[in-house]
């Protein structure tokens, strides 16, 4: 009787312990994605053709989504603004035709859908990439690495290179210039305008204006 009781108790313990062991042994760690909800608003419709961010999004937020536009870096900390400034080398007052963003060998992202119109090296800009977006062109300068080639199509959030300090630079940073034809545009205002667009049609109209 005692032996039978022991066998029954052992069977009960094994039956209770197995589900707990199974749930621990075979549980897979789920990937997590950091999303700043304050930076984006999703359209109610979903799908590859219909789901667009209505605000400029951080590129790490693009998981399984189609971006309307992306920031050029994961962080957006300006170290030098557009306009007149004291030249960091000569100290003279000169016009800065773009913005400088804090970076540290950081991934550089295409802000919009477009085509790479040129890549190369410039004595001032260092290694650079120029991407054409409709009537606008974005130039990314001082890169340490270039990951795209001329005539290559890119999407918002596509990695196009790595930041650096090539050319005339005091340290690692990303220089961004926006041009409409031959006219320079303040990149900050350009990005602010993008953040106000809510649909792909509005973006196309803006870039073709």
From TrEMBL:
Gene3D superfamilies: Glucose Permease (Domain IIA)
Keyword list, A-Z: Signal
Superkingdom field: Bacteria
Keyword presence, Manganese: no
Residue spans crossing the bilayer: none
Record-linked InterPro entries: Cell_wall_metabolism_enzyme (IPR050570), Dup_hybrid_motif (IPR011055), M23ase_b-sheet_dom (IPR016047)
Domain M23ase beta-sheet core: start-end pairs: 94-187
Cross-referenced CDD domains: M23_peptidase
One Pfam family matching this protein: Peptidase_M23
PANTHER family assigned: L-ALA--D-GLU ENDOPEPTIDASE, PEPTIDASE-RELATED
Name this polypeptide is given: M23 family metallopeptidase
Native source species: Algoriphagus pacificus
């Amino acid at each position: 009787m005692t032996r039978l009781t022991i066998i029954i108790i052992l069977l009960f313990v094994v039956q209770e312990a197995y589900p707990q062991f199974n749930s621990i042994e075979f549980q897979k760690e789920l990937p997590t994605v950091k999303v700043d909800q304050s930076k984006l608003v999703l359209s109610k419709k979903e799908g590859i053709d219909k789901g667009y961010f209505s605000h400029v999004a951080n590129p790490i937020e693009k998981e399984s989504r189609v971006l309307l536009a992306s920031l050029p870096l994961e962080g957006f900390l300006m170290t030098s603004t557009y306009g007149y400034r004291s030249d960091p080398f000569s100290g003279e007052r000169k016009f800065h035709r773009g913005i400088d963003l804090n970076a540290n060998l950081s991934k550089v992202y295409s802000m919009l859908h477009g085509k790479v119109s040129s890549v190369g090296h410039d004595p001032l800009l260092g290694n650079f990439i120029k991407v054409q977006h409709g009537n606008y062109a974005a130039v990314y300068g001082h890169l340490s690495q270039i990951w795209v080639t001329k005539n290559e199509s890119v999407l918002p959030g596509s990695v196009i290179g790595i930041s650096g300090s090539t050319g005339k630079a005091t340290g690692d940073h990303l220089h961004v210039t926006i041009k409409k034809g031959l006219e320079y545009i303040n990149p900050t205002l350009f990005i602010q305008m993008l953040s106000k667009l809510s649909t792909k049609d509005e973006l196309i109209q803006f870039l073709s204006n």
